[in-house]
Design a protein that fits this description.
Blueprint: H1 11-22, E1 30-34, H2 40-49, E2 54-59, E3 69-73, H3 79-89, E4 92-97, H4 107-128, E5 129-140, H5 145-153, E6 156-162, E7 173-181, H6 217-220, E8 226-228
Parallel strand pairs: 1-2, 1-4, 2-3, 4-5
Antiparallel strand pairs: 5-7, 6-7, 6-8
Helix pairs in contact: 1-2
The structure holds S-adenosylmethionine.
S-adenosylmethionine binds near residues 38, 59, 60 and 76.
């Protein structure tokens, strides 16, 4: 259905659902989309922000041209990438991150790498969001989720954890929707997230795939479908 309607990914519908429910993107907004390839979210963001808006899609992989959007190829964990984003937008009304690691098949490892990416997305949001801005980030559920959610809560006035209907039923991915960035008055947790030089807190080499097969504890502890705090 996504292709038929002109979207590059099924993920596009998740952002549509999130926006219908939480009103994250408005016309005229400056939106930065992290982990954007192949570009479904960027397409939806460009539609929602309209002609007066500005949308920047960022990914490790190249993204083919999207009407109404600028694309940057880069690692969201790198200062260079953040500078490149800033050169295009200065500051942003909305930061989105659907970034996800390549799955290694080891639940704890994949979860830790997902949280690592989410921490970098939050650090990026802290650097470029205007006060009052909004942030949406994907995180795989697991034992680090609650701590991460707490750090988002310290920086935004209203924070929700949400699992859109468009996510596959068996998926343990969650989206944290955070509204009203407090600006620099927020806590320092995300600011202390590792930068590109010491980003490898999570090792690049996956542990043995056998080590945790069947031990997908994060799923069991998953929150209800949509928790509103
Ligand atoms: C689920 S896909 C995003 C789908 C996208 N939202 C869409 O609608 O088309 C996750 C993306 O995160 C990207 N990614 C993972 N780690 C990244 C990093 N460190 N920097 C930039 N992008 C990253 C991957 O290359 C991949 O394209």
């Amino acid at each position: 259905m996504a292709k038929k309607e002109g979207y590059r990914s099924r993920a596009a519908y998740k952002l549509k659902q999130i926006n219908t429910r939480f009103h994250i993107i408005r016309r005229g907004d400056v939106v930065v989309d992290l982990g954007a390839a192949p570009g479904g979210w960027t397409q939806v963001a460009a539609e929602l922000a309209g002609n007066r808006g500005t949308v920047v899609g960022v990914d490790l992989q190249s993204i083919s041209r999207i009407d109404g959007a600028v694309t940057i190829r880069g690692d969201i964990r790198s200062e260079e990438t953040i500078s490149a984003i800033r050169q295009v937008v200065g500051s942003a009304d909305v930061v989105l991150s659907d970034a996800a690691p390549n799955l290694a098949g080891d639940w704890s490892y994949d979860h830790a790498r997902s949280v690592d990416l989410a921490e970098h997305a939050l650090a990026c949001a802290q650097k470029i969001l205007r006060p009052g801005g909004n942030f949406v980030v994907k995180v795989f559920h697991g034992d680090l989720f609650a701590g991460y959610l707490q750090s988002v809560k310290s920086l935004f006035r209203n924070v929700y954890s949400h699992s859109p209907m468009a996510s596959r039923k068996a998926s343990a991915e969650m989206y944290i929707v955070a509204k009203m960035f407090r600006g620099d008055k927020g806590a320092t947790h995300a600011r202390n997230a590792p930068d590109a030089r010491n980003a490898s807190r999570v090792p690049d080499v996956p542990p043995s795939l056998n080590s945790r097969r069947g031990d997908r504890g994060g799923r069991d502890g998953r929150n209800s479908r949509d928790n509103t705090d």
